[in-house]
C-alpha cells in the first residue's frame, strides 16, 4: 500500500489539518495507507481516535515520515523535515515559493516532487482541486465578519424607538471568490454593498448577489480568470475614481491578489486619509504585500481615525470547514497520483505539470526558476 504522511502543522496561527477523518476513510478504501502525527487534527477538533476509526494510523513525529511516499500538509514543510524524506517523495501543500526560495532549492536538492496547491491550473477539470478558491471562500466570509466587528456602526438598517439607523456602506474591491463571499456575507448582515473589479466579467457576478457596481473605463481581463497588471495611466484613472467612492464608505474590504506576485496597490495613503474617522479597511491581501499602502501584515493601524486591518491566514479562523474543503481538494488530487493501487503520476498531465515546483533534482516551475536564479 502507498503511504501518505500528514504532519501536525507548526506554522504560527495555523489551525487547519490537511486531511479530515472522512477523507482518510475514502483514501484508505482506495488503497492508500494514511499515517498522521498525533494531534494533527486537534486544532480543527478532529481527535486521534476519529482518524483511527477511519482506518488511519497515528504516530509521533519521529516515526511519521518513515517510508512515506507522499506527504500532505497545509503549510510547506520546514527544512529539518525535508531532510527526513527519501528522494522521489511527493509533497502536496501550499508552497509560497516567492517567499522562501531557499526552501525550494532544498526540495530540489533532496530530489522531492513538490506540488504547490496554489498553482493548480484554472481549468474545468481541476476545479475540484482548486485550493485558492476553497480557502478564499472562507477568507471572504471571515473578512466581512471581521469588518462588522471592527466597525463602530451597525451593518443592517434598524428602526428603533430612538430613531432609524441607516445601513453601513461597504465597498468590496476585487470580485474573485473571496470578494464574492465578502459581498454575500455583508449583504446577509444587512449592509448596502458596492463592488469594484478591473475585470468587466466580474460586474455581473457582483450584481447577482445584490451589490451595486462601480464602473470605470478600464478592462483588464487576464489569463486564468485573473486580472492583468494595469498600465500606469490605468492606475492613475483607477485611483482618481476610487478615491471619491471610498471616501463615502464606512467599510472597505480589499481582496485583489495575483498568485506568485505582490498584491496590486488599490488604496494609497491619500485615499485612506480622505475616508471618514471610524471607517474600517480590511485588507485580505496583507500576506502578499497588501492592497492598501498603510497595511501592516498581522496588525491593525489607524490613520486619521480610519482603522486598517491586515489579517493573516483568515481561513484558519474557521478550521473545521476550511480543513474539510482543503482535504477534499487533496482527495481529488490524489486520484491523479494513484492508479490501480500504484503510485504512478503522469507528470505530463496538464494539472500536475502546472503545479509541479520541483522534480528529479530540478526546479520545474518557470517563474520560480527565474526567481531563484536557476
Task: Give me the side-by-side strand order of the main sheet.
Answer: 3-2-1-4-5-6-18-19
> How far is the first residue's CA from the last residue's CA?
36 Å
Tell me the overall shape: globular
> Could you say which structural class the secondary elements and strand pairing correspond to?
alpha/beta
Percentage beta strand: 15-25%
Q: Average pLDDT across residues?
A: 92
Helical fraction equals 25-40%
By DSSP (H or I, 4+ residues per run), the number of helices equals 13
Low-confidence stretches: none
Could you tell me the number of beta strands?
19
Q: What does the largest sheet look like?
A: 8 strands, mixed
Round the Cα radius of gyration to an integer and report it: 22 Å
